Amino acid sequence: MTHTFPHNFLWGAATASYQIEGAWDADGKGESIWDRFSHTPGKIEDNSTGDVACDHYRRWREDVALMRRLGLKAYRFSTSWPRVLPCGRGRLEPRGLDFYDHLVDALCAANIEPFLTLYHWDLPQALQDEGGWTNRDVCHAFADYAALMVKRLGDRVRYWTTFNEPAVAAFDGNLMGEHAPGIQDPRVAYQVAHNLMVAHGLAVQAVRAARPDVDAGIVLNLWTSDPASDSPADLAAAELAWQRGEALFLDAVFKGYYPSAVYDLLGGAMPEIRSGDMALITQELDYVGVNFYSRNLVGAEGNVNPVPGAEYTEMGWEVCAPALRRLLNRINRDYRLPPIYITENGAAFKDEVSADGKIHDPRRLDYLKNHFIQTRLAMQDGVDVRGYFVWSLLDNFEWGHGYSKRFGIVRVNYETQERVVKDSGEWYARVIAANAVEEGQP
Ligand code: FCB
User: Fold this and answer.
1) What is the value of pTM for the model shown?
2) I need a labelling partner for 103 at 20 to 30 A (CA). Which of 27, 248, 256, 347 fits?
3) DSSP secondary structure string, 92-134?
């Protein structure tokens, strides 16, 4: 069976600045919290850093050529705040801004729609030294940075995402301490979560003030919480997990309040919410990005893990494509949403280079195929999905895991920086060309 997509469906791939650029201190770039974190011994699984990563800062021409060869219609990337404003505010680094300017020109020349994210976690260290996202001044600095970028690139970049996955930035970074800045403090984490929302609202206003004709959105990571059984206790546990995790951000952005489950959880430890904040947070958006990887199977006694008989990726995430269709239908039912883009979806598996020099990665190919199909089915259910970005274009620095997890549809040899398109990438190019996915054999 063939699943054909609407003719203007935006097929793309995604990356993030710190994960691919390298050149961590080149051309006047300031230090980011991820530079500081990865340079701290013991923080990254394989003791690696993003100092070089995919050397994209120097190889971007080659990478745009690769995107063109794959036939990508769009490219989602993030800009590094400290590359442009080394201290987060004040002195501008023109070489940093020129880098993104040239990249955007090259994308436009290749007919690839640039889909820009302003914050994919690399906060200028100078701002962290002022308290990071717990400091409201940082929210205003972010809005100023957003305005600066839109003024320079908004004539060519239509899609402006404020934040990538505020949940991960707040909680992995400030509650679990597994991401930069490596803090483990619930009070800090929830204040950061709220202030990221405030910064989102301020940045949307700043983007629109700078250029009313561009589109503004946010990218959220959403996992479904599926009940382990139909028992009332399991159903309640699953719903509570959804309310505390996903609904926390969805409600704030699309309804202008936090779920009561969050108040119940935090009690007197709620973050400081100033009057007017919730109205600021719930700005009209032009799109919402959904990053989807997996689901949780939740029971009253805790999560079911591993799920018997299920397939897992190298991240330890269950492969469960039907959960994506359920997720899209649920958010479509619960919220008045703007058009949706799947802004990340993909899988880390152990890749091997075969004797023929190729990377046969049937599991990644199947993963993508099944998620494309479930998305198409959700669209037929009535969900307005406009595009899809595979995570990731390139193997890259996977945060706390370093280079040990490969998500790319293109392999990167980190010794030579050679890029080789994997089977999944060649297959994806055929999907894009046909604008359709074949169920069954590739
Ligand atoms: C998401 C991140 C992205 C990448 C994938 C695997 O949470 O946005 O940078 O790490 O997970």
Assistant:
1) 0.98
2) 347
3) --HHHHHHHHHHHHHHHHTT-EEEEEEESS--BHHHHTTTGGG
